[in-house]
Amino acid sequence: MSKAAIDNCIGRRILVVEDETMIAVLIEDMLEMLGCEIVGPASKLDAAIQLARDELIDAAILDVTIRGGQVFPVAEILRERGIPFVLASGYGQWALPEAFRGNPRLQKPFTVGEFEGALNAVCAPRRGD
Amino acid sequence: MALGDSDKQSDKNKPAKTNGAVAETPVTSGANTESAVALVVGIGASAGGLEAFRTFFQNTPADTGMAFVLVQHLAPDHNSMLAELVGRTTTMTVTEATDGMPVVANCIYVIPPNATLTISARTLRVERPAPDREHRRPIDTFFESLAKDQGENAVCIILSGTGSDGARSLPLVKEHGGLTIAQVSVNSATGGMSQSAVATGMVDLVLGVDKMSARLVEYQRHLFYTASQKDGDGTRFDTAPQLAKITNLLRAKTGHDFSQYKEKTLARRVQRRMQVLRIDQASVYVAHLKENPSEVELLFGEFLIGVTQFFRDPEAFGVLQATIIPKLLEGKVAGDSLRIWVPACSTGEEVYSIAILIKDELERRGLSLRVQIFGTDIDEAAVALARAGRYRTPMLGVSAERTARWFVEDGEDYCPIKAVREMCVFSTHSVIKDPPFSKLDLISCRNLMIYLDTDLQDRVVRTFHYALRPDGVLFLGSSESLSRNGTLFTALDKKHRIFQRCDAETAFPAISPTAAAVWRATAPTPPSNADQIDRSARRALEKYSPVYVVIDSRHEVLRFSGSEIGNYLGPSAGMASLNLFDILKPPLRSPVRAAVKAVFAAREAISNNDLALRIEGKIRSVTVIAAPLKEGKSGVGMCVVAFQDAGPLATRKDAKPGDKIINANAQAQEQELSTTKAQLQAAIDEFEILTEEMKSANEEYQSVNEELQSSNEELETSKEEMQSVNEELQTINVEMGSKNDLLTRLNSDLKNLFDSTEIATIFLDNELRIKSFTPGMTDIFHLRDADRGRPITEIVTLLKYADLERDVRTVLRKLSIIEHEVQIGKDGATFIMRIRPYRTVDNVIDGAVITFIDISGLRRAEDDRHESELKFRVLADNIATLCWMADGEGSIYWFNRRWYDYTGATLEAHQGWGWQSVHDPEILPAVNERWKKSIATGQPFEMVFPLRGKDGLFRPFLTRIVPMRDAEGRIVIWFGTNTDISAERAIEEALSESQTRLKFALETGQLGEWDLDLANDTSRRSLQYDRTFGYDQPVKDWGMKTFLEHVYPDDRAKVKQHFDEAVARHKTWHFECRVIWPDASIHWISGHGDLYRNGVDPPTHMLGIVCNIDTRKAAERQAQLLLSELDHRVKNILATVSSVVSQTLSSADTPENFAAGLEGRISALSRAHSGLTQNGGGGGALGDIVKTELEAYGDGGHRIKIDGPEVLLTPKASLAFSMAIHELCTNAAKYGALSTATGRLDVAWERLRGSDPAVLRVVWSETSGPTVEPPTRRGFGTTLIERALAYEFDATVERVFLPSGLRCVIELPLTVEVFATPAAKVEPDE
């Protein structure tokens, strides 16, 4: 864990949407190490929408394919709320809808470093505010 | 003066109006006083008057007590609906009148068709049939009878309608005291009747139909009220006393004095006006008369009601014609004048009647006289009508013969012919007031004097006596007499009241010199006033008490005071006279005349003193006193002349007795003076006579002047006529102009016709001179416009034709037509020349017409036809096909050479029906049948049959026979061709085999074939093709458009684009696309097509195949799915492995444990995945997963028991389950039942029904192992077991650490995420 990443991320409330248990656990571990507070994790779309709408969130890690469909409705809510998020997917860039192609993305499988970089990227600009 | 005649008729009718009428009125029942005045209302309308009738009765109460009689113009042969139609608007009884039907109050009677309706004694009379149309005036007829029958109780109403029926009867109605009403004219189309009625001036009221009834009711009430105030004569008691006031008013306003008219006549006329105005009191009427000048006019008109007609009283006129007129003409020679006066001529009928009689007689005698008939009347309107001289048909009293001879028809009216009209002069003139005409031969004054009282009659007769020349004739009405003046005339015909003026050289004009001004005031004193005059005279002369005479304005002595007056009077020689100046002693005449004149002028008494007069031989002084009589009506216009003896003249110096010489001288002078005075008197008398005559002449001139004025008016009328003629001429001019235009256009049409037909035409006259020619002629003759008029023979022609002149002359002589074909030059145009006589529209021969019709084109066409036929023969003989021609009946008359070559026969053998010999006898009947059917129906023939060649072999021939028709549609030629088709037959068979094979191949490969017509977008397809698009039956219309409609919308554009490219670049068209079947399912198809050239460019068709590729597409998709899934899963697995490694590492205390844990977990993953692939990649069976995990610990099955139904899980659920089971196994092997030899493990699962989705319940039950305790630390394994299932599939995982061993119950909802069904396997993702 880099010092800069921890500085950026510490205390952040991060929404985790991931239906793969093992990966959800892995993400939880990584976030804990970065000092983040975890919102979720949610494995199903309706639960994720609920969280995205109601919870106080600083950023989000969203698995694209989850139980109940794809995560894009959640992403849209977040975008409306101005909350940055990372899309995590095993599929390539082409699998994303047009609207989200430019969004930060995390290619599965990812390493701790990649995760940290992606999270840092969505959290870092906030520091300046 | 048309004071209408109430002659016999009115006298007769008087009783009907008296109280006798009350008793006589045949009211059927309940007769009371009121019914005595119940009105009988006659209503007239023409055929269109129904609406007016209805309006009238809608506004009329049913209980007025009046009776109504409707008279309508009906068609004689037409049943009238009038009664029924009127009956709908009123509750009164409406009946069609029948003969003898009494008229009852509150009833309506309707005239029946084709009948004359009259009324008599309040009973209806119906006479049939109605007179001819021209004499039919049902309204007039009925009104006249109604007036005579009902008098004052008659009301005549004229409603809308055409014509003038009803108008003529109105004077009679008014004459009898009835009321006349006309409808307000609504429009000119139907207002004719009411307008005509109003125009007579005899209509009392002009009202709207809806207002009439109210007036009638009031009128009746008034009539009833006044009935009680009338005397036995129907004259009201209160009227007579007011008459003097009324006549005074009239005299003041109109200048006409009616005071001496018969009182009763006047009273009745006044009463009528009161009746109309609903005025009850005569005094009120007088007031009304004073306030309303218009009423004076109306009353005046009322007094002047005139009834007259042509030849009225025919017998009298007969006498006039037979004896009187010849008598008048006796002794007259050409150029003499005949003067006749008709006073009170009204509208002139009598004047014209007399004119006609005289003209007739004059013509009979061949005599030409200057005839003047003066018609005069005081009614200006009547005189205007007389002057106009227009009479409505039918003219009563005029026979048809007289009508035809003496009248000309002008529209609806008749006018007297000019010769008659010119004899008559009309003017306004009063026989009483104005000076009379003079030197008349005849006076016809009929039915005037009956209106006048005796004194006035007397004066009028004397006027007539004056006006007539000696032996002149006076013609009076049948009930009139000469009154007191019987001595002035002798009767020529007593019965008809025709008198002759007595010889009366001394007869003095009945009119005094001052008459014109004061005559009306100088009526002879009635004897009844004598005492009063005596008293007046005495009163006037009381203080003088002289002797006196009373004279009237004409100086006639009326009274002598006593015998002493004899001193002053002395009879003079000649006819006895009472004229004062005739009997006065001459010396007194002059002073007395002066005095009397002054008295009449100034109306003041005058005395003249010291007049010398010899009385009883002594000369005495006499005072003459003249004074007017002023008191009383009778004294007006009279004068008293008194003589007072003032004693002997001796008191005067110059009259001393004894002065005899002086006296003698005086006497001589006096004698001389007396003579002179007598002479003067005679001169004065003569002067007065001349003055009188001058006045008469003046009167005459005034009449002539009026006549001239009317002539002037006539001239103006003529001028208007001229203007209208001018108008007409202008109209005609315009018409001529337009005809001229028409002719111009026709001329130009003709010119264009000639130009367009290109028929060169030349017109020659009888001398062969050119009249005109069309432009085309210049090609044939060297013609110029200047050549018109030159003989055709002088013109140079290009024609090779020398006999033109001879031929034209032949045509003119024989009137035949000659036709030649002529040519210009050698190779020039050919013409048909036709020479025909020129007939004018009057069918007169006026030269000849030569036409040249260019037929060069026809010539060429004929040549071409010959050539064409030749070519055809050559062609027909040299083509490979057998040809022949038959006539309309099918008899062949020509074969081409190929026929003979093939059959080896000759024309003679095969012509007609001989060709049958080369047919196969078995097929020939069929051929013949078909061929004869074609001949009969005219249908083309087509058949394949064999023909034998000359080598004896039969070959198949395709035979076609087509008809050729003439203009009428008849078949004239049948063309036949026989084509050898043996080679085609062989090819056909080969093709058929090939097609069979192809079809088989296509069916086997389930390939649909298609053939698309590119131009028309139609296609030919196999059934298999249509099946490809989901149709079990062949589809009717199919083309590219239809095809594209079936293509899945997303694919359409691409398919179309490829197709267009293929067509454009002549490439093969490959396509693979989805199509939508009729059941909306989507299927994949593939196909390709190739343009079919067939030697045509651009290609017209595209042929190809198509087949269903659903199966292939499903397989492809599955593969794609698997690939994608594999990629996804590998990445997920790698992520999982990465997580497992990381988790295992963090929970492992030693590298060995880490390695073992890692290996176990990864191998579990591996096993789970291998299970997935075994099941075709779709997922894993729960049983397999459990068994695979427990395999390592298995020992034959006694320690481990696995039990449960087959449940297929999704790959993801399989994986989760594998990991969970693996962890349970690992734990069991480390700490639980599988760590000892005695431990047992039961894994059982079942589907719990009753909830949706169903729940899979897995029970992991360890027994007989070591005692277990809950783990103190939650490790990765635990997380895997508890969280993976719960997190990913909403499962509940319950672990219970029992003393006997671990019991873990997993309940997993079998959602689609978990439960893999076979259908889910093929579902395409994304």
What can you see in these coordinates?
The complex is a heterodimer of chains A (129) and B (1326). With 129 residues, chain A is α/β, with parallel strands linked by helices. Chain A has one domain: Rossmann fold. Helices cover 43% and strands 22% of the residues of chain A. Chain A is globular, with a radius of gyration of 13 Å. The mean pLDDT of chain A is 78. Chain B is an alpha+beta fold. Chain B folds into seven domains: 19-228, Rossmann fold; 308-501, Vaccinia Virus protein VP39 (Rossmann fold, 3-Layer(aba) Sandwich), CATH 3.40.50; 515-657, PAS domain (Beta-Lactamase); 758-849, Beta-Lactamase (2-Layer Sandwich); 880-976, Beta-Lactamase (2-Layer Sandwich), CATH 3.30.450; 986-1108, PAS domain (Beta-Lactamase, 2-Layer Sandwich), CATH 3.30.450.20; 1149-1322, Heat Shock Protein 90 (2-Layer Sandwich). Chain B has 39 helices and 46 strands. In chain B, strands 3-4-2-1-7-8-9 form a seven-stranded parallel beta sheet, sandwiched between helices. In chain B, strands 15-11-10-16-17-19-18 form a seven-stranded mixed beta sheet, sandwiched between helices. In chain B, strands 21-20-24-23-22 form a five-stranded antiparallel beta sheet. Chain B starts with 7 loop residues before the first helix and ends with a helix. The model of chain B is unreliable at 1-35, 505-528 and 1318-1326 (pLDDT under 50). Classes of the chains: A alpha/beta (129), B alpha+beta (1326). At the A-B interface, α2 of A face α34 and α38 of B.
**Low-pLDDT stretches of chain A:** none
Q: Could you give the order of strands across the largest sheet of chain B?
A: 3-4-2-1-7-8-9
* CATH fold type of chain A: Rossmann fold
Q: What's the CATH architecture of the largest domain in chain B?
A: 3-Layer(aba) Sandwich
SS content category of chain A:
alpha/beta
Report, as a whole number of angstroms, the end-to-end distance of chain A: 23 Å
Number of domains of chain B: 7
Name of the CATH superfamily of chain A: Response regulator
Largest sheet of chain B: 7 strands, parallel
The CATH H-level superfamily of the largest domain in chain B is Methylesterase CheB, C-terminal domain
Oligomer: heterodimer
Instruction: Report the CATH C-level class of the largest domain in chain B.
Output: Alpha Beta
Shape of chain A: globular
Shape field of chain B: elongated
Helix fraction of chain B by DSSP (H/I, runs of at least 4):
40-55%
- Range of strand content of chain B: 15-25%
Q: Please, how many helices of chain B? A: 39
Largest sheet of chain A: 5 strands, parallel
Q: Biggest interface in this structure? A: A-B, 19 and 23 residues
Structural class of chain B: alpha+beta
Distance between the termini of chain B: 128 Å
